[in-house]
Amino acid sequence: MMRPTDLPATIPVFPLPGALLLPRARLPLHIFEPRYLQMIDDCLKTEHRLIGMVQPRAQAGKDGRTLQTIGCAGRLTQLSETEDGRYMITLAGVSRYRITREISGFTPYLKADVSWDGFERDLGKPEVDEGFDRPAFLDLLSRYFESQHLSTDWDSLRDADEELLLNSLSMLCPFEQEEKQALLEAPSLATRRETVVTLMEIALRGGAGEDKLQ
């Protein structure tokens, strides 16, 4: 477990649309672009082995930035190399961060100065959602999965602790990029659960435009 003082002020960032990482969750990735292969090689040389996942913006913001301000850093915990030189890696979510400055030109991949302030709870124990109604949630989830033609191991979902369940669904469900960003920025597990429920209900109603999450 890391402490806030262990976290670096500058990290490599990996913009990947739709790829959501959350604290205490795990994200498998397939790395094949030369610049990101270099990023992995450089990351392995650092003590912290952190990579910042972040969503690209649909269009540059008023500040000219092409990335969302908030991302989540993961520690490189697993790596295997294929015969043709690609990497299969796993990132373990450590903490969300806020980008203060994008740094380009010194490496083939992007780096950023980041602030970890405001995300101290990410480094603590798993969150608890006191208002979580598992039977009602699983009933909604079953109807959502059926509408999306998805399947899962329901026994595992019934047994999973609430943070693992809600974060895994946030990462794996086919939500839109902006919706995944909203799930990332949720200030608490309860807020994330409420957002997931809203997104599934919207999908079940056919995604009416007036119900779209802003």
From TrEMBL:
InterPro entries per UniProt: Lon_prtase_N (IPR003111), Lon_prtase_N_sf (IPR046336), PUA-like_sf (IPR015947)
Domain of life of the native organism: Bacteria
The Lon N-terminal domain, residue ranges: 11-204
Membrane-spanning parts: none
SMART domains in alphabetical order: LON (SM00464)
Pfam families linked to this entry: LON_substr_bdg (PF02190)
Protein name as annotated: Lon N-terminal domain-containing protein
Organism name: Jannaschia seohaensis
